[in-house]
Structure formats: structure tokens, C-alpha cells
Amino acid sequence: MSTVDELPPAARARETRGRADWPELPRHPARRARAGWLAPRREISPAARWTLRALSLLVPLAVWVALSTSGRVDPTFLPTPAATWDAWWEMARSGELWTDTAASVRRVLLGFGLALLISVPLGFAMGTWRWALAALEPIIGLVRYWPAGAFIPLLIIWLGLGESSKLAVLVIGVVFFNTLMVAEAVRRVPQRLLEASMTLGATPGVLVRKVIFPYALPGIIDAARVNSAAAWNLVVIAELFAATSGLGYRIVRSGRFLQTDRIFAVLIVIGVIGILMDVGLRLLRDRIGRWTP
Amino acid sequence: MSAGLELAGVGKTFPGGARVLEGIDLSVAPGEFVCVAGASGSGKSTLLNLVAGLLEPTGGTVTWDGRPVTGPGPDRGLVCQTGELFPWRTVAANVAFGLELLRISRAERARRVRWYLEEVGLTAYADALPGSLSGGQRQRVAIARALACEPHVLLLDEPFGALDVQTKEDMQIFLRQVWRDTGTTVVMVTHDVEEAVFLAGRVVVLASDPGRVAADLPVDLPAERDLAVRRTPEFLALRTEVEDLVRLHHTAHTARRPG
Ligand SMILES: Nc1ncnc2c1ncn2[C@@H]1O[C@H](COP(=O)(O)OP(=O)(O)OP(=O)(O)O)[C@@H](O)[C@H]1O
Ligand SMILES: [Mg+2]
Description:
The complex is a heterodimer of chains A (293) and B (259).
Chain A: H1 3-6, H2 9-16, H3 46-69, H4 81-94, H5 96-128, H6 130-143, H7 152-159, H8 163-187, H9 191-198, H10 204-239, H11 247-256, H12 260-288
Helix pairs in contact in A: 4-12, 5-6, 5-8, 5-10, 5-11, 6-8, 7-8, 8-10, 9-10, 10-12, 11-12
Chain B: E1 5-13, E2 19-28, E3 33-38, H1 44-52, E4 59-64, E5 67-68, E6 76-79, H2 91-100, H3 106-119, H4 135-147, E7 153-157, H5 165-182, E8 185-190, H6 193-199, E9 202-207, E10 212-218, H7 233-254
Parallel strand pairs in B: 3-8, 3-9, 6-7, 7-8
Antiparallel strand pairs in B: 1-2, 1-4, 4-5, 9-10
Helix pairs in contact in B: 2-3, 2-4, 3-4, 6-7
Magnesium ion is lined by residues 44-45, 157 of chain B.
Pfam families (chain A): BPD_transp_1
Domain ABC transmembrane type-1 (chain A): 101-285
Keywords (chain A): Cell membrane, Membrane, Transmembrane, Transmembrane helix, Transport
């Protein structure tokens, strides 16, 4: 028996195929299948999940409480939670909180609704027809880099100090991003599905109504959900200028009188409304997009 | 002017200059079951897309009963390898899609959907969403959906290519049965020679580069076929013949590659 025959098969193959001088490949140490909390996408227990979710809110709250009650920070800079609650209660009782909230919510509904009315058809067309994509993508791709806030002085010159300039800020800030995101959602409709539909007798109109729209709808709602957060931010920014109502206006006014406790209270209200809006759209999306994987 | 599908001198060159098909002459009589076999890249899918009307030939004509094919339509139902279904529609609603586009009553539509679901053995899954089906079940839905429009010809592009061997056998027997029950014409593309010989009444072999008809062989096997047919000498002889043809035209195509 020659020495070559005594080697294990893999080593023997190496000897005979001119790879004799290759060093042994280092081996990984044995591992557990999905070890450690750094393993990507690893499931965590429901208890851990809910604990972390609670801590996510409670830790910042605790830091706030600790800092503000320590006596080392000027209460004008950082009001205590109790002072913030009192300020909230004061504004709620006088009714100004409700009129401000109603004014802001109304602007978001109108402005965001208008932005959707423009961007959904535009984006849908861009995702459906190559000619629409070619005609619109360059200009929208450019314009979306202009910050909506920078338009405020211009819009006040053009539209005055009334409602329309505030709505316009909102629309400008949302419409371009939403158009591109809707176009992307529509472009995800598989070509093969369109072809199969055509061999079942679908005309272009049928494709749009019965194939492209239902397929893209969950993606369109996702886009709206992301951009509703932007709309909510923008309305507050728009109200920082020359408004007489709204949560943004309330912040500016409180700032003028150094009422940081009021500013904090309004910020919390803005956050709560934002979360409610997000949860609502998420529920809608999950209902309509039940079929998505 | 002959009845059925007629391809006369059909060629397809893609805009980039790729000459994929050239001089394809092929006629398929109504009610025939024809399998097109050929190596990967020989232009089988392209051929089927031309018949479906999803592509336009750059040469020659494609006609059905003498009328030129000008675009896709429900008279030529196409089922592809992935069996694209409408994921938001239930199985029954998928099958109903083509019928919804026609002027027929709701009751008539429901009756037909029920019949085709029964035919493909998916009555129990009528209300299921495609996402919860197995690969074989999805293909059955895709086939039922195409058949519900009562096409002149059912075009199948490697419909069982992604299935495991057992499911594939079931589906082959199922497809023969559906063909006999509905009397529809079937043109099926496959690279599985055994499948082609088992299913078809005629096997067309495509040569590559550019794709053209290399052979057109009748399958003289009994109409009543079960899996045992595959062990008969006649079947094996034909299968070997077709396999050799496919290999021959494939090796001719890849000859310049070092072995
Ligand atoms: N749209 C296209 N533009 C350019 N070339 C294409 C196009 N579609 C297909 N081809 C080319 O045509 C040739 C045949 O493609 P086709 O998909 O018809 O092959 P096939 O026989 O179906 O192969 P497979 O068995 O792998 O599915 C390939 O070389 C492919 O690259
Ligand atoms: Mg193919």
C-alpha cells in the first residue's frame, strides 16, 4: 500500500491533483445554531419584548424626572413632570388646547389629503406608464431636494398669511416624496402577473383597476403612513410663522413667555396624536394588505 | 388556410440584436397536445410568448384559424413556471378573473368556477388565499384560471419545472385528464423529455442559436396513459430518440466551450 492510499480521500485528491502544498483550511469552532443576542433576526420572548417596549418609554421619563427634580437644573429650562401636567391641565381647562389641536389636525387633514390627491395619481401613473415616468421623474427628483421650510417666506409673499400658505407648505413638503414612493410601490407589480392578466382578457383599463391598483394598495398606504409623520411635523413648522392658532403657534407663544412647561405639554400632545395616526394607518394597512407575506 | 395554430416562417430578433428564433414552421390542429422540447436558451419561452401575443415576431406570421395573432387574449391562455396568481384574491376569485371581464351572469360565473375548481381538485380551497397553497396547488389554480376562459389553446411554459418528482407526476396525469375532459388544444414547453413524451401527441424539438425546429415526432402511445407506459419499450425508445436530439442540438450549440 502506498502512502497516498492511506490518506483520507480529500487529502488524497489534493495530493494527486497538484494542490499538495495547500495548507489545511482553518475550521470554525463548533457553534450553537443561532447563538447569542447578536444573531440577526433572532426571536425574543414576549416578556422580553414587552419589557423592552416599556423601558423604551420609561427610561427617558425617569431621566426627565431625575434631572428636573434634582434641583440642579433651572425649572425654566427643564420643567418637572408635575409642572408640565399642571400646564396641560390649565390649557385643557381654558379650552385653548382643544382649539389649537383642532386647528392643527384640520390643517393636516386638508393639506395631507390634498397632497395625497395629487401624489397618488401622479405616482400611480409613473409606476404604470413608462412615458409618465420619463416625463416626471427628473423634475420631481430635483424638486424634492428643496426643503419645504425654505418656501415659507415665498409662500407668505404669494399666498398671504392665511390658511392657504400653511396648507401649501404641507403639500410641498409631502407631495414629491409621496409621489416617488407610490411610483415605487406600483413598480413592484410583477410583469409576469400583468402578462398573465392580459392572456385572460385584461385591457389596459382592467389592468389598472383590477390588477395594478389592488396589488399596489398596501404599498401606497405604507407610503402614506411614512409621509403622514412628515405632514404632522410640517404643520407645526408652518404654524411657527404668523399663525394665530395651532399647536405650533402655542409653542411659539409659550416660548415668548418662557413657559417651558407649556412647550413640554404641547410636545407630548403632538407625539400622542402622531402615534395615534400611525397606529390607525397601520391597522388599515394590515387589514387591506392581509394577503401580503 | 388551415384550422388551428399556424406558425409560418416565424423569426424573432430582439432589439439588442439577439437572433433567438428563425424560420419556425409549425402547425397545431385543434385538440392536439404538442410539447416543445429544447435546451435552455433555445427560445422556447420566446416561441410561446409569440403565440400568446405578448411578443411580436420580427419575421413570418402567427395565425389561429387563418386570423393573425395581434396581441394577448383569452383565446390563448398562458401559464408560466411560477404560476403568477392574484395574491389578494381567493382561489375561486382567481379562477373567476377572466369570467368577470365577460358579460355573463353572476350565477353562470359561479357555476363555471365551481366546475373548474372541481376539475382541478381544489374545491376545498375555494376560499383560501394563494399564499397558503403549495406549488402544485398554485399551478392547478393557474391552469383552472386559464381554462375557465375556454381558450382555443392552452399555452404552458414549463408549468411543472419547479415541482418535486411526485407532485410533478400527479400534475402530469392531472393535465392529461384535463386535456381529455375539456378537449382544448395544448402547447407545452418543457426541457423534461420524459414529460414531453409522456404527455404529448407530438414532440417538437428546437435547436438553439437561432432557435428552429430540429425535429417533429409523433408519439405513438395509447391515448389511455398511466405511469406504467414509461417502462414500455416504445416509450423508452422514443424518449431516447428525443433526448439524443435535444443533446445533439445542445452540444452543437456549446461545442466551442472547452470540456
Ligand atoms: N427580451 C429579451 N431581449 C433580449 N434577449 C432575450 C430576451 N428574452 C430572451 N432573450 C434571449 O433569447 C434566448 C432564448 O430565451 P428563452 O427564454 O426563449 O429561452 P428558453 O428556451 O425558454 O430557455 P429556458 O429553458 O432556460 O427557459 C436567450 O438567449 C435569451 O437570452
Ligand atoms: Mg423558458
